[in-house]
What we know:
The chain is mainly α. It has one domain (2-197). Helices cover 53% and strands 10% of the residues. The protein contains ten helices and four strands; from the N terminus they run H-H-E-E-H-H-E-H-H-E-H-H-H-H. The strands form two sheets. A two-stranded antiparallel sheet has the order 1-2. Strands 3-4 form a two-stranded parallel ribbon. Helix 1 (2-17) packs antiparallel against helix 4 and helix 2 (19-32) runs antiparallel to helix 3 (80-87). The longest helix has 23 residues, at 156-178. It starts with a helix and ends with a helix.
Amino acid sequence: xxxxxxxxxxxxxxxxxxxxxxxxxxxxxxxxxxxxxxxxxxxxxxxxxxxxxxxxxxxxxxxxxxxxxxxxxxxxxxxxxxxxxxxxxxxxxxxxxxxxxxxxxxxxxxxxxxxxxxxxxxxxxxxxxxxxxxxxxxxxxxxxxxxxxxxxxxxxxxxxxxxxxxxxxxxxxxxxxxxxxxxxxxxxxxxxxxxxxxx
Length: 199
């Protein structure tokens, strides 16, 4: 209950305080390329319930039809503003709406697309889907700029599935075993520190 109360209070405060930033970013996205300001992507949440995750759009319209869910830093689908937003994690800010709605938490395993969930073992699926997905966790801090790791790869999807995803699963399971309110606070502070350092 403490975790959920924290999510409600601080996601609401975040949306209020960051409203000017939302306006500026929305204008940047709109002026940079045609298409909607926000991106809605289908993800799998707690207990396997699907939900729409919100992000600022960083790619050309219809990007999901011309490429996979893994995105390298040099992906041609990225817009100029999109590259900037991803570099500073600004595209993730609309997920505060998901947190406020109870579909996500500040801390928890990053929500995945349905096809990646289906690749999990039964035990992995049961554990990972037993908690709300989050905006950050151990795996997010380990792989903070995933796009840079995938950069230059002729097949980013293959690299993600073979070299990144297995480690992410292990770290997501570790978070579920270790989780506590104070660990969440520690991970949130570490994430904010990384964003400002732009590591």
